[in-house]
């Protein structure tokens, strides 16, 4: 056995704005999105082993148990195997590893859980295996795992375009205090895209360069999530959740990704924590988390 036990965070990916700007001939939709990453997230642990192993823990671990029984659909195992195969072509060792996924985020909830887990697996295993690969080699691995994985691998405030692979880091974005909420009901992303009336919407305007929280909130308020309307039609709880967030004083409320997670932006950590407590009292059977994004200053 080789390697030193280590862990890697898989932060929630928050689409602060998401415009659908087109569709490619192969069916992939073109997006323009402003993305931040939250302190709330999953956690991957890596430890030496005589043979590969994979385990689950955390609040939402049981929901993944069936998937974890095999390779199909499990992005953590796919990331492990793709990285190992690539390292083999570069003459670098990748011995057996025991991986534990602590699943703290709701499954299939529009905040990049699976993609964030895959990206964290790549980052964590690179360190665990002492591997060295350049960005030109790692980038295609991330994209092969999914359109959201490259931005999750970056893990910083960014603007993503194309199908998600065209990334520009946003160095002026401030930190935002958020409450994430999810009604813990599934929603089909393909169904949402099928319901989109317009798929060639205008792109997002140029983000602020000032770093002012007020400027950023005003900018984000002028944007939208083009998937939110169709998602609300499929799952009315999204609208109810948004109303609840507004009722607790959120300055900006929006759905993230294809849902059903919504977020509210609050004045500070104290008001976000207070809102989370109130929301938990209102719907103790739903998911709520007060958190903070990792702004660049």
UniProtKB/TrEMBL annotation:
Residue ranges annotated for the GHMP kinase C-terminal domain, each copy included: 222-282
A single BP term in Gene Ontology: terpenoid biosynthetic process
InterPro entries in the record: GHMP_kinase_C_dom (IPR013750), GHMP_kinase_C_sf (IPR036554), GHMP_kinase_N_dom (IPR006204), IspE (IPR004424), Ribosomal_Su5_D2-typ_SF (IPR020568), Ribsml_uS5_D2-typ_fold_subgr (IPR014721)
Chain sites annotated for binding ATP: 106-116
Pathway linked to the protein: Isoprenoid biosynthesis; isopentenyl diphosphate biosynthesis via DXP pathway; isopentenyl diphosphate from 1-deoxy-D-xylulose 5-phosphate: step 3/6
Catalytic residues (positions): 13, 148
Reaction equations catalysed: 4-CDP-2-C-methyl-D-erythritol + ATP = 4-CDP-2-C-methyl-D-erythritol 2-phosphate + ADP + H(+)
Domain of life: Bacteria
Record EC number: 2.7.1.148
Keywords: ATP-binding, Isoprene biosynthesis, Kinase, Nucleotide-binding, Transferase
PANTHER family (UniProt xref): 4-DIPHOSPHOCYTIDYL-2-C-METHYL-D-ERYTHRITOL KINASE, CHLOROPLASTIC
Family statement drawn from the similarity comment of this UniProt entry: Belongs to the GHMP kinase family. IspE subfamily.
The protein's name: 4-diphosphocytidyl-2-C-methyl-D-erythritol kinase
Lineage, opening ranks: Bacteria, Pseudomonadati, Pseudomonadota, Alphaproteobacteria, Hyphomicrobiales
């Amino acid at each position: 056995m080789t390697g030193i036990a280590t862990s890697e965070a898989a932060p929630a990916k928050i689409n602060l704005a998401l415009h659908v700007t087109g569709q490619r001939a192969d069916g992939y939709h073109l997006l323009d999105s402003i993305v931040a990453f939250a302190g709330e997230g999953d956690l991957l642990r890596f430890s030496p082993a005589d043979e590969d192993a994979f385990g689950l823990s955390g609040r939402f671990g049981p929901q993944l148990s069936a998937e974890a029984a095999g390779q199909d659909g499990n992005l953590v195992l796919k990331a492990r195997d793709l990285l190992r195969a690539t390292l083999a072509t570069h003459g670098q060792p990748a011995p057996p590893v025991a991986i534990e996924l602590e699943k703290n985020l709701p499954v299939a909830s529009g905040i990049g859980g699976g993609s964030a887990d895959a990206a964290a697996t790549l980052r964590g295993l690179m360190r665990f295996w002492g591997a060295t690969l350049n960005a030109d080699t790692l980038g295609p691995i991330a994209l092969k795992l999914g359109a959201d994985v490259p931005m999750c691998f970056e893990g910083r405030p960014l603007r993503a375009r194309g199908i998600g692979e065209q990334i520009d880091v946003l160095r002026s974005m401030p930190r935002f205090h958020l409450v994430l909420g999810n009604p813990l009901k599934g929603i089909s992303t393909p169904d949402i895209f099928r319901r989109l009336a317009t798929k060639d919407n205008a792109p997002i305007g140029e983000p602020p360069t000032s770093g002012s929280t007020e400027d950023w909130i005003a900018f984000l308020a002028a944007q939208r999530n083009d998937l939110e309307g169709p998602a609300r039609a499929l799952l009315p709880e999204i609208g109810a959740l948004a109303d609840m967030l507004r009722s607790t004083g959120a300055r900006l409320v929006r759905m993230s990704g294809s849902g059903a997670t919504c977020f509210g932006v609050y004045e500070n950590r104290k008001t976000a924590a207070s809102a989370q407590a109130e929301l938990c009292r209102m719907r103790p059977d739903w998911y709520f988390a007060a958190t903070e994004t990792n702004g660049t200053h």
